[in-house]
Amino acid sequence: MKVLVINCGSSSIKYQLLEMDNETALAKGLLERIGIPGSRLKHKKGADKYEINRDVANHKEGLNLIISTLIDEKMGVIRDTSEIDAVGHRVVHGGELFASSVRITDRVIKEIEANAFLAPLHNPPNIQGIKATMELLPGVPQVAVFDTAFHQSMDSKAYLYAIPYEYYEKYKIRRYGFHGTSHRYVAARTAVILKKPLEELKIITVHIGNGASIAAVKHGKSIDTSMGFTPLEGLIMGTRSGDIDPAIVPFLQEQEGLSPKEITEILNKKSGVLGLTRGQYSDMREIEDGAIAGDPICKLAHDIYEYRIAKYIGAYAAAMNGVDAISFTAGVGENSPYLRKNVVTKYLGYLGITLDEKENDCKACEKIISTHDSTVKVLIVPTNEELVIARDTKEIVEKNLNELKLW
Ligand SMILES: Nc1ncnc2c1ncn2[C@@H]1O[C@H](COP(=O)(O)OP(=O)(O)O)[C@@H](O)[C@H]1O
Ligand SMILES: CC(=O)OP(=O)(O)O
Ligand SMILES: [Mg+2]
């Protein structure tokens, strides 16, 4: 079975075509700058890399370009679209309704649309992607895999905010948590690497990419996570503030004459390490290089970034009344020995953790990086959200097919 995985952002589409018989990616790519002059498609087929520079006005045009690339004689990996058996979509916000992945129907689309007000940056492009794919690949089954689903296991003591209860009832204001597909995958892999049942482990998964979140995964279930009502809460990110005193919002609005939209934009796009470095860098590689070279602004930004991660790890060790393993993942977590070393050696010694610095000196490896006698294990686990989406898609589509056969 071949599954096409689609992740539609506001101005980008990430995709992967997977052969599920052996779970390998046949082709993958990224289309950027949709609706902005200078659109660019980067496509990979095995080790071969291609780049197409052509303006793309909207998501439908973008998906059309991606599909034509997949069936192209030179760049493609399939003869025609009939080889695509199913499509799996990343959908960021599933609200309280979706605790697992679902086959997309008109009703499901309506529900995702109804949740769009909870994730105005993420859900509308996800819906556009689903609708465009349905038009371009009519009759091909489609599945939605939600970032929020894995965290639906949280208890009300973890997901409720201490604001008047009526706002939860009226607007569903609560912690949802995101990156659930990644936290789920990384926790499961951690158990496999440690050769222990997931149901017996207390794992802290540290997903730090451009967006960043931490989850406390107790016995296979998410019991708490740092992102909240939106993907803005929690850790410091590339351009997002993470936790701040909520009183700063109206204060700044009044002082600077900002609208709700403008302050939201500042907290999402101009804050995080970008804000801390006076608008210079949002990429952790640049900040890390600067910090190592002795630039005081980069050093401070890095210190604040790692300190926040360490505080959350401490909080989640408390929330689970212990921790067996801490797994680093995503762009920064997988690729930065410097970040992992600083977090672990500066702040986590009290947990009985010792880092094996030789093992830690590794990029995108899947391994244990703590010493043999470390009481808590520390790991690097490269995430694979696309594979989880494809697996869920395959499972749901096959289940439906089997059910159909019964009739
Ligand atoms: N070698 C590295 N050292 C530090 N940070 C890195 C390294 N490689 C990638 N990154 C960081 O990873 C980020 C991208 O992570 P990723 O998980 O792909 O993010 P997203 O999915 O949110 O776009 C980049 O912005 C960069 O800061
Ligand atoms: C939900 C979220 O923050 O996603 P990303 O890290 O892809 O921005
Ligand atoms: Mg990501």
Fold blueprint:
Elements: E1 2-8, E2 13-19, E3 24-32, E4 40-45, E5 48-53, H1 59-71, E6 86-91, E7 102-103, H2 106-114, H3 123-136, E8 142-146, H4 156-159, H5 166-171, H6 180-194, E9 202-208, E10 212-218, E11 221-225, H7 248-256, H8 260-269, H9 272-276, H10 284-293, H11 296-319, E12 325-329, H12 330-335, H13 337-347, H14 357-360, E13 367-368, E14 377-380, H15 385-406
Parallel strand pairs: 1-6, 6-8, 9-12, 12-14
Antiparallel strand pairs: 1-2, 2-3, 3-4, 4-5, 7-8, 9-10, 10-11, 13-14
Helix pairs in contact: 1-3, 10-11, 11-13
The structure holds adenosine-5'-diphosphate, acetylphosphate and magnesium ion (MG).
Magnesium ion is lined by residues 209, 211, 330.
List keywords for this structure.
binds magnesium ion; 15 helices; binds acetylphosphate; 19% strand; 40% helix; 2 domains; 14 strands; alpha/beta; globular; 407 residues; 6-stranded mixed beta sheet; Nucleotidyltransferase, domain 5; 8-stranded mixed beta sheet; binds adenosine-5'-diphosphate
Structure write-up:
The chain is of the alpha/beta class and 407 residues long. The chain is built from 15 helices and 14 strands. Helix 10 packs across helix 11 and helix 11 crosses helix 13. 43% of the residues are buried. The mean pLDDT is 95. Adenosine-5'-diphosphate binds next to helix 10 and helix 12. The site of adenosine-5'-diphosphate (ADP) has 13 residues, from helix 10 and helix 12.
